[in-house]
Amino acid sequence: MIRHIFMSLAAAVVVAGGAWVPAAAADDGFIVVQSTTSTENSGLFGRILPIFEEKSGIDVRVVAVGTGQAIKNAARGDGDVLFVHAKPAEERFVENGHGVARHDVMYNDFVIVGPPGDPAGVKGMEDAVAALTRIAEAEASFASRGDDSGTNKAEMRLWNQAGIDARAESGSWYRETGSGMGATLNTGTAMGAYIMTDRATWIAFGNKGDYEIMVEGDPKLFNQYGIILVNPEKHPNVKAEMGQQFVDWILSEEGQAAIAAYEVDGQQLFFPNAEG
Amino acid sequence: MGDFWGTMAEAISLILQWDTDLIGIIALSLRVTLTAVAIACVIGLPLGAVVGAFRIPGRTLVTVVLNALMGLPPVVVGLIVYLMLSASGPLGPLQLLYTPTAMIIAQTILVTPIVAALTKQVVEDLHGEYAEQFASLGVGRIDRVLALLWDARYSLLTVALAGFGRAVAEVGAVLIVGGNINHVTRVMTTTIALETSKGNLQLALALGIVLLVLAFCVNAAVMAVRASAVRAAYV
Question: What CATH number is associated with residue B28?
Fold first, then answer.
């Protein structure tokens, strides 16, 4: 009897393995978008991409990695569209001929979250640089992405402005996780550290524990997202026409409205600001 | 600990209400891993048997290399395959990056040394018993390899399972070359990593349990085949 069960299981396994052929792999109607974890993990793409796919018949395949890695992947030609959040690096990408043009898409902001005990006493501060200075002076644990992502680049700019070489303290109170936003939030909340995160990832994050937003509202915490079509002259494999269709749609009234309509727990995550 | 069991209970209820996406993810996991293991066996079994049975030149070196490659870090394999398949890499024109084929290639590279090294050991031991008989019967080289592989087939099933275990649990390589694209290259392990990073620990754990059950079923199925074959052989 048991043998029969196992045999039918084995048969099921073989059928499942052999019969499954990816429907989308057969045709060429897809583009690859190199993007960031915040857009994917917050659920934004899950909401807006089906609208575009329905309308255009183009399948959008998202590779969600840190901004630094996304830019490098796109610079190798591994993607048709780049959708990230590190304006200076994006402009360099276009200047170096890898991208056709950069467009603002949407923004949100970064926040610094921390444990309810607030060991550095930064709760309610608006000035992000002053708050980081206070955290450094208190030598309170701070978990950094340390992965050259958009969030990490923004964090490093703030430490610079504070005149603090946080990386010199790496391993003591300053902890570089070297991983994505979600993994850093998991690690940081478990060690009672302060963490700088984009608001969208934070709102959608499912393992907040008793953490709260400590610092928010500083214009320096502004987080701009941009979109770039990878340059087909530099990378002939780029599907320029379909990629451009996607870029145009994101920047269109319909695309911008879809971004604005996305909410988690009644809170809007991204604020469209493409130039109309 | 209460928290842990609470998480477990929630995880199991999550498995029960998951939609059809999970079926696709499980099917892709099986397709990628089983294909990779099959290819690894086609390459690794004869390779291991030849190294195990014959005093070929450089045999010790080949053995050491095979054994060392058993410890290949998946992330490194992923990186190498990525650089080869990237649009700017030598195999870029094939456009295989971010496809299940790329994932199969990476896992084949990971599993082949395991299959070859373990096969070598199994065949070498068996060859010790058979060597005189082969010599007295004047069996040719190819026939020797085939006879050894055939007679060692039950042990070699376990070898294939070791390869399967390595491949199905692996996340580093498939994440880099597959890109964890929803409905295209998302498999069990990359889904678990993704849900963990979203902070959805219950769902991640639920998927981990599914993966364990899956590995159990494959192992049980292979062992059942083995048991019935052994019985048939000795009746």
Answer: 1.10.3720.10
Best B35, B95, B181, B200 residue to mutate vs chain A (most A CBs within 10 Å):
B181
Q: Are A152 and A177 in contact (CB under 8 A)?
A: no
Residue A110 scores a pLDDT above 90: yes
| Mean local confidence (pLDDT), A226-239 | 96
CB-CB under 8 Å, B97 with A25: no
Is A257 in CB contact (< 8 Å) with chain B?
A: no
Lookup result for tokens 């992405």: A145
Residues A212 and A228 in one domain: no
The pLDDT tens digits of the residues spanning B171-224 come to 999 999 999 999 999 999 999 999 898 888 888 888 898 899 999 999 999 889
Residues sharing a CB contact under 8 Å with residue A245, sequence separation 6 or more, in sequence order: A56, A58
Same domain, A20 and A152: no
CATH number at residue A24: 3.40.190.10
Nearest beta carbon to residue B221 from set A9, A78, A208: A9
ipTM tops 0.85: no
Q: How many domains does chain B have?
A: 1
Query: Scanning the structure block, which residue is given the tokens 């991204």?
Result: A270
Mark whether A186 and A247 lie in a shared domain. Answer: no
Closest CB to B197: pick one of A7, A17, A37: A37
pLDDT at B39: 97
H-helix or E-strand containing A177?
none
